[in-house]
Write a structure and sequence with these properties.
Chor_mutase/pphenate_deHydtase; 15 strands; Preph_deHydtase; 6-stranded mixed beta sheet; EC 4.2.1.51
Length: 280
């Protein structure tokens, strides 16, 4: 646990990043702990410098967040909640700078294409930055600069920048799903709608995956996510990451997981947590 009496939450990026926004939505009273990498976020919790970790797992536009599924099973952490952040892009600049003065902006390379239509219409050029919120922090220290930054409004609030344009993203449905993770698994049934996330590796037998999935179909369980990824760079060793609706104590879920166990050589539950209201 952290030394402070106030719990801490680690995330990847600078203060004002979308991951920071996810922390503010899910745990507004916690002290944010910025980390450079996803591995650093996990390490901060395992070493006691933070109590919880906030990690992005997927985005409606770009799909799976790279490396996350590889890191989660090895992290020693467990999912205790999920949250969703709509990626709203704002153009910000130093106080006193007007929109017509901004001819060039910086942002993370993933963010720039999402506002391409607006930038082209305004005749604004752009370049990639390592981190959008970090670019906002740099701009705040750049006296006399008339450049802009694309980031979430939280970054403008934190770094004292003015928002010159809001919601300039091309797509109005771009949303990132985040997982809140803790050192210990929480099996309490905290909602009528629970999710269970697990990873597994099937045995090397014919139709193993088909047979493994059969138990979920016959027990009427909705699997909301199933993804595969290679293990240790091997083309033959494949792990699967799955989200299902339900709690391991539910009779139908228990039966399905028992059946899954017959066809797997590894099964690890990563978390049991309430379904977020955004799912409906």
């Amino acid at each position: 646990m952290s030394d402070s009496n106030t719990p801490r939450i680690a995330f990847q990026g600078a203060l004002g990043a979308y991951s920071h926004e996810a922390c503010l939505k899910a745990s507004p009273g916690m002290i944010p702990v910025p980390c450079t990498t996803f591995e650093g976020v996990i390490r901060a919790v395992r070493e006691g410098r933070a109590d919880l970790a906030m990690l992005p797992v997927e985005n409606t536009t770009y799909g799976r967040v790279a490396d996350i599924h590889r890191l989660l099973p090895q992290s020693g952490l467990h999912i205790v909640a999920e949250t969703f952040v709509r990626v709203r892009i704002a153009l910000m600049a130093r106080p006193g700078v007007t929109l017509d003065q901004v001819k060039h902006v910086r942002a993370h390379m993933v963010l720039l294409p999402q506002a391409r239509s607006y930038l082209d219409a305004q005749g604004i050029t752009f370049e990639a930055a390592a981190d959008s919120a970090g670019a906002a922090a740099d701009l705040a220290l750049a006296d006399g600069s008339v450049e802009g930054v694309l980031a979430g409004e939280v970054a403008a609030d934190i770094h004292g920048l003015d928002v010159l344009a809001r919601d300039i993203e091309d797509l109005d449905h771009n949303t990132t799903r985040f997982l809140l993770m803790a050192p210990d698994i929480d099996l309490e049934r905290r909602s009528d709608k629970m999710l269970t996330t697990f990873v597994f590796e099937v045995r090397n037998i014919p139709a193993a995956l088909y047979k493994a999935m059969g138990g979920f179909a016959t027990n009427g369980i909705n699997m909301t996510k199933l993804e595969s990824y290679m293990v240790d760079g091997s083309f033959t060793a494949t792990q699967f990451y799955a989200d299902i609706e339900g709690h391991p104590d539910d009779a139908n879920v228990k039966r399905a997981l028992e059946e899954l166990g017959y066809f797997t050589k590894m099964l690890d539950i990563l978390g049991v947590y309430p379904s977020h209201p955004v799912r409906g």
